[in-house]
What we know:
Order of helices and strands of chain B: HHHHHHHHHHHHH
Distance between the termini of chain B: 37 Å
Number of strands of chain A: 12
Order of helices and strands of chain A: EHEEHEEHEHHHEHEHEEHHHHEE
Oligomer: heterodimer
Shape of chain B: elongated
Largest sheet of chain B: none
Amino acid sequence: MAMLIEARDIVKHFPVGKGLILSRLGGTVKAVDGVSLQVEEGKTLGLVGESGCGKSTLARLMLRLIKADSGEVIFEDRDILKLPNKDMQAVRRSMQIIFQDPYASLNPRMSVGAIVMEPMVIHGEGDKESRRNRAIELISLVGLQPEHFARYPHEFSGGQRQRIGVARALALNPRLIICDEPVSALDVSIQAQILNLLKELQEDFNLTYIFIAHDLSVVRHISDEVAVMYLGKIVERAEHDLLYSSPKHPYTVALMSAVPLPDPEKERERKRIILEGDVPSPIDPPSGCRFHTRCWKKRDICAEQEPPLEDKAPGHLAACFFPENL
Amino acid sequence: MRLPDHGGPEDLMPGKEQPDLLGPEIEEFELELEKEQIHGRTALWSDVWYRLRHNKLAIVGIVIIIVLFLVAIFAPLLATHDPLYSPLYDSTVSSAEKAGAVKQTPNSEHWLGTDQLGRDIYSRLVHGSRVSVEVGIVAVLISLLIGLLFGALAGYFGGWGDSVIMRSADIFFAFPTVLGAIVIMTVLGPGLINVFIAIGVLGWATIARIFRSSILSVKENEYVEAARAMGASHARIIWKHIMPNSIQPIIVYATMGVGGAILAEAWLAFLGLGQQLPAPSWGNMLSEYLVYYTTDPWMMFIPGTAIVLSVLAFILLGDGLRDALDPRLKGSV
């Protein structure tokens, strides 16, 4: 299978202070610090990690919404970070994003129809009539009614708004959709609806997803492959079954142990790992393995050397000197 | 909306007690819902109008403003006399008549009396309204043009352009408006057009600052990022996404600014820098009549009241608009 998108060693550091003096004194937030990943066409990569670990920054870097400090993003066999703006415009047709907050991601002054038609207007697709028809088609496709065309976002619930966001993302028949925590702002019952919608759309249109979440159970439902991020780095990456059945990195193990089980008896017997302390500051991340400050398996080497992200089992990458489940 | 009757068998859940219905509250809620349904569709601007209509003070402001505009537009038709005609300079009028023609108190011939030169005050007031309306509109438009452009550049693009623009705005802030206007008027020379320019140019800094801060908060919204991800141009993002969501404070400020410009014109005319005599404006009428405040104080109250009422009207409307545009703010400022 061909890779649709590949990120190679992407780095993004944000200066902490603004202005001439502060930016030199304050250091930098190492939001994304050398991340590589690939996604095959038609597949879903789940990207999980705690708040502030750089997931959303990575998504925006891959869409070139913010400028990367270094690294490459290969999309459709071209490094899009080096494309001139004019060529980038054409690439944007094929890559779209769905946002976390359904209340902030729709312009309150535009009707649903105008929101869904906007990508077509920007890319000069079709005439007024055909854009309108396409928008109505999309609105029905995501499970809303055609008569919602003329309504405004404030008349809809969170789940419905998220459907509008999905319709907008689909308007130009993209190949890649980056879903930036698309369900974490929704009720659990609505979450399932949106996830199922995304799955159906993927099958129907051969879409490729990068699905960001801080919730492993949500990612489990939708992903083919899962990558776990911690403080701007990927610490583990594997096929979804492999990762869930035998997590290798202690951080992943700890994350999994935090997922509640629906069966109360199993839930009672379940051994939970409670990590000590907070996520260290990304301004001055720990030396060596970034997780060593909270790891129960920590030894001297962990603070001295950075463990490479390498195969611990076939198709199972992890960055740890003492992996679990071997 | 009629509530279901208590005790009707079809209303009872089997095996459950009929819940206590809160009659009037529910009815009110239903009404509210219906309102929402009617007004939801046509959305935001009709919502604003709906709330504005229920604000009595804003309605008072609107009525005064409409009257002011009508008077300004139809001034030649409404005036009963030539505003410039003075019997003192008319050789066909005898000197005895001349003595009786000046400073008449209001009467059936001269509704608001006559001034020290025997001119009809009502006609001068009606013609003077044109100056106030013109200054109000033109000066605010000039401020808006400059202020919105620079505010958008500063807020949207940031960087060193932002610094340059906002520091220049600070320089304009450092001048008291009237002093600044006097300086500009001294350079450009007296005259109505120069009043427009002076007041307009001095007003841009506030508008730029308000618009910039409004943009700074709006541009962080994800729908702006969504537009960028679609490949929308900067012009489109500013015009379609940022402008409609950040213009409300500007609408309020500009409305009140019209009142401010009317007041500033009066100020300048009072100092002899605005509309030049004998052409009437409320400001120069006030400065002329103020001289007679010991002998004929009623004269100065006529242009004075007109100025106060029109400034007040714009402030009331601006205030009402602020509440109507953002009901959450109501009572908080």
